[in-house]
Amino acid sequence: MVIVQKSTITVNNYIGGKWVPSSNNETYKRENPANIEETIVIAPNSTEEDADHAVEAAHEAFQSWSKVPAITRGKYLYQFAEVLEMHKEEVAELLTMEQGKPLAESLGEINKTINEIRYTAGEASRLSGETLPSERPNVDIRTIRVPKGVILAISPWNFPLVTPLRKIAPALAAGNTVVFKPASITAAMGAKIIELFKKSGLPEGVLNLVIGSGRRVGNQLVNHPKVRGITFTGSTSVGSSIYEQAAKRLVQVQLEMGGKNAAIIYDYSDIEGAVNQIVPAAFANAGQRCTSISRVIVSEAEEEKTVKALKKKIEEYVIGNGIEAGITMGPLVSEDQLATTHSYVEIGQKEGAQLVTGGQAVTLKTEGYYYQPTLFAGVKPEHKIAKEEIFGPVLVVLTASSFDEALQICNDNEYGLAASCFTDNKSYQTTFVNGAQAGMLHLNNGTISESHAPFGGLKHSAIGPYSIGSTAKDFFTELKVIYDAY
Question: What is the pTM of this model?
């Protein structure tokens, strides 16, 4: 439930079809990252008891929801997409006020969500098995897909609409019920998702919302015996902990985690065109994207031209409150994120990298978590700013003396989510596709994912079946093999 009083929104948990406060009646406040004097949300600080109630409600609803025809389940998702489209402007404003990204980016997230929901709704009618020949006479063999049960969906704050629905929609399409735990600092968008599903007519108990800390609520949900699948997007450290806990119960996980994504520019005739792809991929959502390009690797001959073009493009950003017209970069999401970003900038300078532009917090008429888009050159592969995920508006440039060295630098990282390569050389393109250690590869374009294609990564970036697209059913269903003698 979203209750607006002046500029403050009060939200509650949603369990078994009812809006309820936390069992201890404790709440917390969330400030507007663009104006920290303004409280945007008051949300429940829930308990282990609340988490248990949500799982029980989902488990009870599963008994009937799993028997609803798949085509009918898909219709609820189509209806949700229609409702979201009708409320697009309202949802975009809430997203910007709570998370900070510019309004244009919020509308883009909504449009992407609608596309993904419609694709996933159609997937409900494509949960097909296969028929197989038998070694024996008078035996038919077939496979079918069945729902898992209660799915726990834990989502982050950077894309508080599309990422949760990337989990909720395929879970519901497959016949599962869901307990949804949003990031605490974007709890209002979590509640808004529930409201939109209520308007879509989704039966009570099928989707439940619990708001609270990961340590208290999250761990209780992860370890609940009736949770049969866990889908998580967030940091690698938290994902690793969830993986460890789930393994003790032999529960399948789908983890989408960190990235330190590189873009190689090598033997490419259109440096400016590459930069026009790389800069938006680096600084959208103020760099707070797991698929952000955060490293550019160029030939030594192309370094000066590339750095000059990057600097020019980066300095075109207009920083401010994302709700205002003309703003192209909003604040970071929190004080912690601002401090972390600046600490890495200081580390980069101490490591001897050249600060080309940016590198400072920004003071505006209202106090917010604003930071300049930042570019470093002269970065070495061993530097921390080249190795560690910053999750802020910082881009670094490294050089290589050969394409093979560029690919080696690209792969010299614990993450493997996405990577781009800008080159006119077909041999280099083939080498990149075969050799880059990342789950999503982009030739001559930035790291933009599409609404029907599998999304996932390698190494420390992901575990489990890729989300979206045809691979989502591999996580959200169980496979049964039937031998039928006649």
Answer: 0.96
